Amino acid sequence: MSVMPPFAHTTHLLYLHGFRSSPRSMKAQKMAQWVSQGHPKVHWWCPQLPPSPQAAMDLVRQGTADWPGAQTAVIGSSLGGFYAQCFAAATGCRAVLLNPAVEPARDLAHHVGLQQAWHDPSQSFYFQPAYVNELDQLQTTLRSPPPETFAIVAKGDEVLRWEEMVSHLPHARIKLLPDSDHALSDFDAHRSDILDFLNLA
Question: pTM for the complete prediction?
Fold first, then answer.
């Protein structure tokens, strides 16, 4: 698959992890490695996101407030893919979405309660009912015209429905995988497409 790169080089790259995940996720670690090895001048940021969606977006906005808009890009996985859509809609930056959540308020309403961190089971947090309302509020920010977006969607995703992901991204460039899984265990196979789209400096 050939993905034509945007005009501007990306000099600032934000990575947003998913629900219960962290900067220690496989995809975040691989992206950090690809950037540091091949594009050391690119400013990379993968923050640990708080459980509150509003607090997560506030953190992201504050941390990127002085980033150059035309040279900024975001990558988001699962719930981070939803956050990435919100960030891209607000800033106009290009976005890479990896099996993105598209109806997170509905889906995470079933996960209210105590949750264990995926990469460190000794760490836990309480997902509050108010966080579902915050997701609903964030959903309204997606009414803006869609920015330049490239999505990788796996038909084998065991968490999210691929048909729903595709239907929510009518203007995105989509790489639809015949199998794979929610974690994109075959992430290495998509390196060239992702890096070509990001057009890193």
Answer: 0.93
Examine the pLDDT at 1 and tell me if it is beyond 50.
Answer: no
How many whole angstroms separate alpha carbon 114 and alpha carbon 138?
Answer: 23
β-pairing, 113-116 vs 124-127, is antiparallel
CATH of domain 12-198: 3.40.50.1820
List, as one string, the DSSP characters of 97-157.
EES--SSHHHHHGGG-EEEE-SS-TT-EEEE-HHHHHHHHHHHGGGGSPP-SEEEEEETT-
The number of angstroms, rounded, from the C-alpha of 109 to the middle of its chain's C-alpha atoms is 20
Residue, of 85 and 142, whose pLDDT is higher: 85
- Return the structure tokens found at 86: 């919100």
Distance, in Å, from the CA atom of 46 to the CA atom of 23, rounded to the nearest integer, reads 6
Encoded tokens for 107: 């889906």
